[in-house]
């Protein structure tokens, strides 16, 4: 099965995403606050058109709408929310942002994405393509997973390889964007046992493996299932706010 189809299926099946995605929601609040702060520092008060990429539910575009009061918000996701048509200034696109950005406009004042770009199979090209979708004097704000994500699981499960913060900064520079803010940090989530960890990964749709390893550590997995010990999972987060001159 095509990798992008796997991502779509797993996110479509993540019917508890809204209830279980506390980490993603926390990151979104931080990213949104920093985006608003830097838009004010830049005296940037003309956010009329927004592209919101990687939208799991409507709470994110609704927050963007409330914060910036744009004329229009376009949302794009490989598995977009079903009820997007109910909001009058919202347009929803079913798209793969690695392949289908040509179907959206080229004149956005803000492109906003929370915890989604890590699914790209060509991150450098994605940033370049997104840059071409921005107006001059506009903002790209995104968060993504970084290279030490879920390090507690690296000897147990197949863990997706993520980019380092330094690599992403190079991609931003190559796309002729000015990174005016970046930050990396960890957010930890505790579980009563390993089974809860697996359920969490499935319920938030992040259980798609994008690499090419074929082996698990079945012995270690069996041990963790039987131990019934508490388990901590570390999300390694990167935040980036970029300005297009």
From TrEMBL:
It comes from the Bacteria. Gene3D superfamilies: Vaccinia Virus protein VP39. SUPFAM superfamilies: S-adenosyl-L-methionine-dependent methyltransferases. This is Biotin synthase. It comes from Francisella uliginis. The lineage of its organism: Bacteria, Pseudomonadati, Pseudomonadota, Gammaproteobacteria, Thiotrichales.
């Amino acid at each position: 099965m095509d990798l992008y189809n796997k991502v779509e299926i797993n996110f479509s099946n993540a019917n508890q995403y809204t209830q279980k995605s506390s980490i993603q929601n926390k990151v979104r609040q931080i990213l949104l606050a920093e985006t608003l702060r830097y838009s004010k520092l830049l005296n940037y008060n003309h956010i009329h058109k927004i592209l919101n990429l990687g939208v799991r539910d409507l709470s994110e575009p609704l927050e963007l709408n409330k914060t910036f009061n744009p004329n229009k918000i376009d949302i794009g996701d490989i598995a977009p929310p079903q009820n997007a048509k109910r909001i009058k200034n919202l347009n929803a696109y079913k798209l793969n942002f690695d392949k289908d950005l040509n179907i959206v406009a080229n004149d956005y004042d803000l492109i906003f994405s929370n915890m989604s770009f890590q699914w790209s199979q060509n991150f450098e090209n994605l940033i370049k393509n997104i840059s071409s979708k921005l107006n001059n004097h506009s903002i790209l704000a995104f968060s993504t997973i970084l290279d030490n994500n879920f390090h507690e699981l690296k000897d147990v499960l197949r863990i997706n390889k993520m980019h380092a913060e330094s690599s992403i900064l190079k991609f931003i520079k190559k796309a002729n964007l000015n990174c005016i803010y970046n930050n990396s940090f960890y957010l930890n989530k505790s579980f009563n046992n390993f089974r809860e960890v697996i359920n969490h990964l499935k319920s938030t749709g992040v259980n798609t493996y994008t690499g090419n390893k074929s082996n698990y550590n079945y012995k270690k997995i069996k041990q963790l299932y039987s131990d019934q010990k508490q388990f901590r999972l570390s999300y390694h987060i990167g935040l980036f706010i970029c300005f297009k001159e």
